[in-house]
Amino acid sequence: MSVPEVVVHRDGDLLAAATAARLLTALVDAQAARGTASLVLTGGRTGIAVLEQVRSSPARDAVDWSRVDLWWGDERFLPSGHPERNETQAREALLAHVPAARAHVVEPSDGRFGDDPEAAAAAYAEELGSAPEFDVCLLGVGEEGHVASVFPDSPAVRERDLAVVAVRDCPKPPPTRVSLTLPTIRASREVWLMTTGAAKAAAVATGLGGAPEADLPAAGAVGRSRTLWLLDTAAAAELP
């Protein structure tokens, strides 16, 4: 596993623009090396801002989007098209450029499995296959240190066997979600944790200070070859 690196940008807008440029380069490099690229998306303000920057970048066309597989780190278990689903938020920003077969979405609550998040999680794990490997996994970091929908002191943070889990009684709305587990996240070549704002500063400092992942899941989100914490100055304020 890699040692975390920290990159600090002046504000969230610059972070999103710089991360988009970094991401486009990473996807081009992956395609040059292996022919295809695999990317895990995240929702939230910063995650969607990065996708919007990708969409508007002239360098976007350097990527062959027909050879990019898109996955989601987590998904809110809501009906298809619901504005709070990460898929819905990403659709306008990026999915128009990616063939439908390569955008691997989590089944919604009105999909094939109805209101059964465990079945949706099992189907997503089957789609991932037995040895998922992502080029880049984008993650946000919550104020309490959660990543994807893996929260502190939860069954999900202790899961070691399942690649994808249903999360019920989530401490943030909506209460039901589907999420990659930490071992699946750690299958990524690179993990990029992106967060902004003073409210995240304590979690950032604790996560980079070696906290147990059960207490602060972001500490357990580590890439095989690289782990980047991409911060604005406010989120980095409590770092040494």
Secondary structure layout:
Layout: E1 4-9, H1 12-34, E2 37-41, H2 44-56, E3 68-72, E4 74-76, H3 86-93, H4 117-128, E5 136-140, H5 155-158, E6 164-167, E7 177-180, H6 182-185, E8 190-195, H7 201-208, E9 226-232
Parallel strand pairs: 1-9, 2-3, 2-5, 5-8, 8-9
Antiparallel strand pairs: 4-7, 6-7
Helix pairs in contact: 1-2, 2-3
Overall pLDDT level: 96
SSE pattern: EHEHEEHHEHEEHEHE
Enumerate the spans where pLDDT stays under 50 for 5 or more consecutive residues: none
Helix/strand-derived category reads alpha/beta
Tally of helical segments: 7
Radius of gyration: 16 Å
Rounded to the nearest angstrom, the distance between the terminal CA atoms is 23 Å
Strand order of the largest sheet: 1-9-8-5-2-3
How many individual β-strands?
A: 9
What percent of residues are in strands?
A: 15-25%
Describe the largest sheet.
Answer: 6 strands, parallel
Mass-distribution shape: globular
What proportion of the residues is helical, as a percent range? 25-40%
Description:
By secondary structure, the chain is an alpha/beta fold. The chain has seven helices and nine strands; from the N terminus they run βαβαββααβαββαβαβ. It has helices at residues 12-34, 44-56, 86-93, 117-128, 155-158, 182-185, 201-208; strands at residues 4-9, 37-41, 68-72, 74-76, 136-140, 164-167, 177-180, 190-195, 226-232. A six-stranded parallel β-sheet has the order 1-9-8-5-2-3. The chain has a three-stranded antiparallel β-sheet with strand order 4-7-6. Helix 7 links the parallel strand 8 (190-195) and strand 9. The chain starts with a strand and ends in an 8-residue tail after the last strand. The mean pLDDT is 96.
